[in-house]
Write a structure and sequence with these properties.
Layout: E1 2-11, E2 14-19, H1 32-36, E3 42-44, E4 50-58, E5 65-70, E6 83-86
């Protein structure tokens, strides 16, 4: 389980996360955190419940924002301030 960021707000039915800083490199040269910031990554919460999927990555390269489309049973306002992880 890899931490991807903290939900800073909701907008237009999406959870907007501030991604954690990229630090670790892998053998193929890609940063490990960048892999969890890819579109299509499944986002989960502290209780390992699936929250949604990353649908957009935007902003500064070193610490981007992620837009997560929530699953149908997720109450968006309750996610603000929560840390999400990549499965």
């Amino acid at each position: 389980m890899k931490r991807i960021g903290t939900v800073v707000r909701t907008s237009q039915g999406l959870a907007v996360l501030r991604a954690d800083a990229t630090e670790t490199s892998t053998d193929d040269g890609a940063a490990e955190d960048e892999r969890s910031h890819r579109i299509g990554t499944t986002a989960i919460d502290d209780s390992l419940a699936e929250v949604g999927r990353v649908v957009d990555v935007f902003g500064p390269v070193d610490r981007p924002y992620l837009a997560v489309t929530p699953d149908d049973d997720v109450h968006l306002p309750s996610l603000v301030g929560s840390t999400l992880y990549a499965r």
